Amino acid sequence: MKKLITAIALLQLCTTLIWAQNTTIKVIVAHVSSPKYFYILHTLPLKQEFTTKTYQVDTVTKTLTATINLTLDKPTSFTLYFNNGDDKSGPSAYRFSLSPGYNLTFKANLAKPDKGIEVTGKGSEDNQPLPISVYAKADAFYGDTLPNRITALINSQQATNKKILNDYIARYNPSAQFKKAQNYNVDYYSAYNYLAFKENNKYRQEREYVRTKPLWDKIQDSLFATASAKAKGQKPDFSKSESDLISDLNNDDALVSEAYQLLLQNILLRKKEWLWNESSNNPGIFFKQWYNADEESGRKQFNDDMENLLKEKIIKAYFTGKSAEFLYATLFTEAEHESNPKNIPLIFNRFKNEFPKSKYTANFQPFVDDILKRESQTITDKMIFAADNGTKLTTLTEVLALTKGKTVLVDMWGTWCGPCREEIEKNSKAVKEHFKDKGLSYLYVANFDSNNESTWKKLITYFNLEGTHILANDLLNKDIMTKIKGDGYPTYFIIKKDGTYELSKAGYPMDRNVLIKQLETAMNQ
78, 196, 346, 441: least CB-packed within 10 angstroms? Predict the structure, then answer.
């Protein structure tokens, strides 16, 4: 038995070694005007890794030469962003479709309007310029109250993409893997772009959208049915419910397609938002269906985690197999990006049990381990809570009385606010290290969190927010935001020693250096 196990292990190792092969791309870029040149390697599909490398350009020939070496055991895609350091037009991007053993030479000439791109070598049949994008250019249609124009645009572009792809295939005879991925991109193009436009556009014409929503939804259902049918070689069934149409989109084979991945991720985001509305508009039905609870009990669970647990419920309700696995990875990616640890260790354990061999486990294990470590932190004497948690304060004047004679950085945030958590994660520690022992004080005002005291205190310890804390009521929130002229969250403002105050000039995302200079000026005053 031991010999058999050893033999199997060796066979698996040999198989991995056979399929894992070096893949090389030699990059040659001519007419580079900057003495330094950089490229960014963006690997796909999900756990987005960015590798930035800077190279010296040959100042005589004004040419950059670089080599990218990868070890692949299966087909993959990535985008190469190449750019002059002083190119004001932004980076140029080139999408590669790679398989193990490809050996490519990529040439570009920045003096030419089309960048003069040439790709040669083994695998070049999969990597010639292909003027197809998975993103529709629909900006001019934002504000439309009816779906006619956007529907015509994306259907027309889908047909054009299909023709371009067929011409490419006839000319270059690319690999089966390339053809499969690109055909799926065409199949899911309209469904993805229509959903993305529809959900963004509704915020541009909210009053009309209430009236015309059935028209928009009808076309969405039709496109979902058509996409599923095309991808699976079936006839579309337009009589199905929205829930059945979403479930029908399951297609593990299509995960090689960027358009399909984007469609799934958009459905996860938008279904979450649709359910938020249902929790208010049809609470009885919503909490029974999604939490198997009455409204009071269900709302407590819902309010405790409107993001991570709700996304998991959506995944379990509609998706299976590799599509579900991919969306779990999306959930973890978004939670990490938004610094949202809520229930992630529990969800991650369920994920590992369901997908014990998932390639994503190793990617997210460090994130989960860090959450567990930080969640074990406790409140310290440097985390000061205003009397009654500040719940009885109603005006900015009362807050100023608490900070008299101090220079204070005030963070108007909320536990529910992804951008707030992101900014705290990225900047809080660095700002405090810069002003260590220099006399700067910190005040954190949590807004719209009156019912989230437990989560509020957990995040204070999780982010190690040393300073004074206030759990603001609606009156205090309104008075502060009106007087400082804040218009969203997070909002930062500075209280000076004389009791005057000014809004942060650092913008969003925060330019930390701008904030530091503004704080230094305030402290010197």
Answer: 346
